[in-house]
Amino acid sequence: MRAMNQPTVKTRFAPSPTGLLHLGNVRTALFNALYARHTRGVFLLRIEDTDLERSRGEHILALMEDLHWLGLDWQEGPEADDSHGPYAQSQRGEIYQRYFAELEQHGLAYPCFCSPRELELSRKTQLASGRPPRYAGTCARLNAEERQKRVEKGLQPNLRFRVLDGDVVRFDDLVRGPQAYTTDDIGDFVIRRADGNAAFFFSNAIDDALMEVTHVLRGEDHLTNTPRQILLQQALNLHTPHYGHISMIVGADGAPLSKRTGSRSVRELREAGYLPLAVVNYLARLGHHYENNAYLDLGGLAREFELSKLGRSPARYDPTQLDYYQRQAVQHADADSLWQWMGEAVHALVPAARREEFITTVRGNIVLPKEAVHWACIIFAETLELHGEAEALVTQAGPQFFAAAVAALEAHPVDYAAMVEQLKRASGAKGKGLFKPLRAALTGEVDGPELAPLLALITAEQAKARLARWA
Ligand code: GLU
Questions:
Q1: Range of the domain at 215
Q2: Of 380, 329, 335, nearest in space to 359 by CA
Q3: Do residue 99 and residue 230 come from a single domain?
Q4: Could you tell me the sign of the dihedral formed by the alpha carbons of 39, 45, 50, 53, in that order?
Q5: Is residue 426 domain-resident?
Q6: ω into residue 86 within 30 of 0, thus cis?
Q7: Which of 71, 247, 396, 470 shows a CA-CA span of 20 to 30 A to 256?
């Protein structure tokens, strides 16, 4: 129970809508959503679309749909409580201008006319002399007249935030513990670009403060941005949230997860047939420790979610683990949704009257809908092709075995146990020597669902034909 006067936790997800949501950013959204739910707080969605060239409306719609599909609904943000809106940064320009003006009035920000070439040259010179590159402060020293001259020349300035030397910015990272950065290494940084748009550091920091976000969980690639953002919040007398920087997701090669090492968009996973709770169960364990690998719903995942269980070392992406949770999700899904999930191809193959039976029989053997299609084809197909090991198995068992099998099936068409018993006696085969060739002839596969329900699904006539073929 929360103490009466403790402020509500508010977390947020602040994607830049420049593409589809990938596993990495979905995990960030998930951790924030789980922590909000764990604390009975609020999860907020903000759209960081300041990069007008790369941000797209369709990406905003797609990411909101993906979050809904995963069950990561936000309580504050677009289409929800809008008490701190607007939530798209492209609509917050006026707010940012007020804060730019305030910083300028207090001499805490100044226009910078340096060209990219001049900046690059200065950077190289500093690096060559072994110093960390930071803005050299050229425009910080301009007087009003010098500024005016540059404006008259038509130069469009950036706005830079003035960082005072000799200070240390400290914060206690929710994941990585105490952090300290000396301001001498930071240097004055751009907060408004020449085109008038706010830079990421600025809008992100201002919005977290104005939207009263209390906890920010984000990728560790943002760790070094945090001291700058805290300086901005302090200069404007705004509140600073608690920041926690979560470890990166890496591929099997130890490098940041990329397309090549398996990073996939939520869309791709969804289109392949992954179920939302499979994705969520897997991602929740990528960098967060759970006691065991039990399949949980979002409420269960949130109950056990603790900031202290977030890991500092990189989290390794393992697709076999994703498939493990996908199997769990398939096991836990109700028959109706599983039927929908299996899709049109299965609907066309499986007679309506056999639907329940089909689902029960194959459920344990499918990961994705394509496997349901595979089993529907096997069970209800007119003809069956045998290849490789399956073909070798039936050849090895020989015609006598299959003649006995046909006879056993004729004698016991609906009693699998009795059929097998008779076949055992007649052929002398037992154990694997009996079941493997039987399975191979009936399904063309060497593994799969249990034979008894499979046989019940394949019509007696079909089953007989499949066995007789090898007799
Ligand atoms: N828009 C930023 C990103 O997608 C947000 C970073 C943050 O969470 O603060 O990387």
A1: 93-246
A2: 335
A3: yes
A4: positive
A5: yes
A6: yes
A7: 71
Say how many Å lie between the CA of residue 12 and the centre of ligand 1: 10
* 3-state SS class at 447: coil
Domain match, 359 and 409 both: no
**Together in a domain, 146 and 215:** yes
Tell me how far CA of residue 439 lies from CA of 372, 395, 426, in angstroms: 18, 13, 18
Cα-to-centroid distance, 280 and ligand 1 (Å) = 20
| Residue 5 pLDDT level (bands cut at 50, 70, 90) | low
State in Å: Cα 14 to ligand 1 middle.
5
Task: Give the position, in ligand 1's atom list, of the atom nearest the Cα of 225.
Answer: 9
With a cut of 70, say whether residue 276 has pLDDT above it: yes
Its sign, for the CA torsion 349, 355, 359, 362, is negative
Residue 12 CA, closest ligand 1 atom number:
8
Question: Residue 4 pLDDT > 60, yes or no?
Answer: no
Q: Which residue has the tokens 């005072």?
A: 164
- Per-residue confidence (pLDDT) for residue 2, from 0 to 100: 46
The pLDDT, as a whole number, for residue 382 is 84
Tokens of 391: 């073909």
Nearest-CA residue for atom 4 of ligand 1: 15
The CA distance from 201 to 163, in Å, is: 14
Helix/strand/coil for 343: coil
Atom of ligand 1 nearest to the CA of 15: 4
Containing 191, the helix (H) or strand (E) segment is strand 189-192
- Residues 27-63 have pLDDT tens digits of 999 999 999 999 999 999 999 998 888 889 999 999 9
Task: Output the CA 158–ligand 1 centroid distance in Å.
Answer: 22
CA distances (Å), origin 442, targets 385, 386, 424: 10, 10, 17
By three-state DSSP, how is residue 386 classified?
Answer: coil
Q: Is the pLDDT of residue 251 over 50?
A: yes
Report the chain's mean pLDDT, rounded to a whole number: 95
Q: What is the pLDDT of residue 6?
A: 63
Q: Which protein residues are within 6 Å of ligand 1, measured from CB?
A: 14-16, 48, 204, 218, 222
Q: How far apart are CA 206 and CA 229, in angstroms?
A: 8
